[in-house]
Amino acid sequence: MTSLKHIPPSCQVAIVGGGPSGLALATELKNLGIDDVVILERQVQAGGIPQHCGHYPFGFWEYKRLLKGPDYAHLLRNKAEDAGVAILTNCHVTNLAPGGHLSLTTPNGSCKMLADRVVLATGVRESSRSQRLIGGQRPQGVLSTGALQSMIYQHGKRPFKHPVILGSELVSFSAILTCRHMGIKPIAMIEEKERVIARSFNALFPKLLGIPLIMGTHNLTIHGRDQVEALSYRDREGKIHQIETDGVIVSGHFRPESALLLNSHLEMDPATGGPKVDQYGRTNDEHVFSTGNLLRSAETSAWCWNEGHKMAHILADNLHSEQTPPPITHSIELEHEALRFVMPQCLSLPPAKNHQRMEHLQIRLNRAVKGLLVLKSGDKILWSGAINSRPERRILIPLDPWIDQPIPGPLSLTIEEKR
């Protein structure tokens, strides 16, 4: 529990969010000699999404250990606390003003904090039923994967016996593991797209368990007055089907947890739903940075941990170096309808010498594409590479060596598609 007397009025680095990225960032900052590091976490305990995931595998890439989610979160917290990081829980950041000024609310009242640097690491959340335009009645028994995990692993409750899982992202398959922990037997997985969103081998898991995986659906409708009784959908041919069920798990379709940004001075990217940043994770406010899943669609905890670790080195350079990067000079325009987003969305050129930065542009697609991915500045091709990918696949364009070349004008990203 946090009290006002434990909240300092100022600090070098304030990290908003105590998930894998925020905890890794804070720990590494302390290891790099940044003494005054504070994590502001709104939950009762830091650890992020993994602390609700009572299954493997977590921690292998970071620590060469196979851990369940809660054990992984516990390890991250311990490492941060052992390094001397101040973790303030039950602490809500209600306002972000220019120059690193934060307004905080705790169970004991409100206060202000001034940070030399603020790093936003608030992560993502699953899209709600209404955001996914799922129709029908509003009975009990409709849960996100996160709510299901919390109910089962933290409270030991079984909300239903035979649910339907909506979605085929990696989190959708993890929902099966969560259900099995409490003896819940899903009766179907339903996906609106024609192919599984996660890697195709994941589709073998429900098949081995006898769970039908139904693709190419639309017009999903939930039925039931008090408790879910059925879910109906239309198939590819337009025929209506109805599945009797007592629950619906609405999984995936992650969105950045960006509520703090909405009334702030920071520029947001409509494509990602998170802040616009440059190759240093820096926003349009030179005091405010961002890392982890707030930047784009959900990545694995290991990927977010690595981003936080990398951000620590970027931030240490920013705090210690006499030569800071120039202001943002170039935006990257998307010039093909299949391109969903690029992150970072902007570049600060020329890049600061001997200053850590992101290693890649990260890209996602709206649909399956095969062809040539091309990054240009005017008519000059800076980088090109073959692409054969689908939505929610990680696509990376290395920043080296082209970012150190003279770049005369606006940047654009396009696809020369093979039909």
Automatic annotation (TrEMBL):
A single MF term (Gene Ontology): oxidoreductase activity
Top-level taxon of the source organism: Bacteria
Signal peptide residue numbers: none
Listed Gene3D superfamilies: FAD/NAD(P)-binding domain
Pfam families: Pyr_redox_2
Keyword tags: Oxidoreductase
The FAD/NAD(P)-binding domain, residue ranges: 12-295
PANTHER family the record matches: ANAEROBIC GLYCEROL-3-PHOSPHATE DEHYDROGENASE SUBUNIT B
Name by which UniProt lists this protein: Thioredoxin reductase
Organism of this sequence: Cohaesibacter gelatinilyticus
